[in-house]
Amino acid sequence: MLLSVRILGSAALMAVTASCKQLILNFDDIAISNDNGCGNFTFGEFSVYHDIAVSDAFGTSRVFNATKTPSCNSVLDEDISLALFGRAPSPSNALFISALLDAQIVAANVNTTLVNEASFDILPVFSAAERNSSDVTVRIFTLFSDFGSVDIRNTFEFHTATDGWGPYHVNVSSNGVEYRFLEVDVVLPDEDSQRGGLSPAFFVDNLVLESTE
After folding, report:
1. What pLDDT digit, counting tens, does each position of 147-176 carry?
2. Which SS3 state, helix, strand or coil, does residue 204 take?
3. Which UniProt keywords apply (predicted)?
4. Are the CB atoms for 94 and 85 separated by under 8 Å?
5. Which of 36, 42, 129, 188 has its Cβ near the most Cβ atoms within 10 Å?
6. Cα distance between residue 79 and residue 31, in whole Å
7. pLDDT > 70 fraction of the chain, expressed in percent and rounded
């Protein structure tokens, strides 16, 4: 649902498009080894990676190596391990989100914004009940925002019976409107009441954004 957007004139839109910079976050340039146990890398609340601060609902996020080894055959729990190992689209690493991804532009130039296309791959963490189901509906919600007048929302739906168990590729556009952060939420039917209403965990890979710098 499009609640409020800032409209750019065609000349301004052409100028933004011509000068935009692609930001590729596949997390594979972070050195993580599973040779001696399961390695991981933690982004703190104020960590910036390729001009983007990435965090989840708890203010942090972790990157895991998706390669199963004799020294690393289980990460956190069985559901998370099954979602991760051997399934990340890029060669090695994937970003683990406990609930709700926030990706915010943090560049040296404070006037730099995000714009145009965003794309990413999602690997949901399915529960045992969901894995035993003949078909699970996966809904992915996106939000473009500038913390003010821009509020652009989209919903994407996948079905395990026809689309498999992921990764699910999402491509979404702000249609030339500048924004400051992307929020991604994943909703599955089997919610865990112990999580206090929080959305399910998931992995993100190949996050690609465009900035005006």
Report:
1. 889 999 999 999 999 999 999 999 999 999
2. strand
3. Signal
4. no
5. 188
6. 24
7. 87
d(CA 146, CA 204) in angstroms, rounded, equals 22
25 burial (CB, 10 Å; 0-12 / 13-18 / 19+) is buried
**Cα distance between residue 42 and residue 40, in whole Å:** 7
How many domains, in total, are found in the chain? 1
What token pair was written down for 146?
Answer: 């500038």
Structural contact between residues 107 and 171, judged by C-beta atoms closer than 8 angstroms: no
State the residue range of the domain holding 183.
2-211
208, 118 Cβ separation under 8 angstroms = yes
For residue 127, report the phi and psi dihedrals to the nearest 5 degrees: -80, 170
How many CB atoms within 10 Å of residue 113? 22
Q: How many residues does the chain have?
A: 213
The pLDDT tens digits for 32-90 are 999 999 999 999 877 899 999 999 888 889 999 999 999 999 988 899 999 998 788 87
Instruction: Output the domain CATH number for residue 149.
Output: 2.60.120
Per DSSP, the residues of 121-167 read EEEE---HHHHTSS--EEEEEEEEE-SSS-EEEEEEEEEHHHHTT--
Place of tokens 């390695």: 39
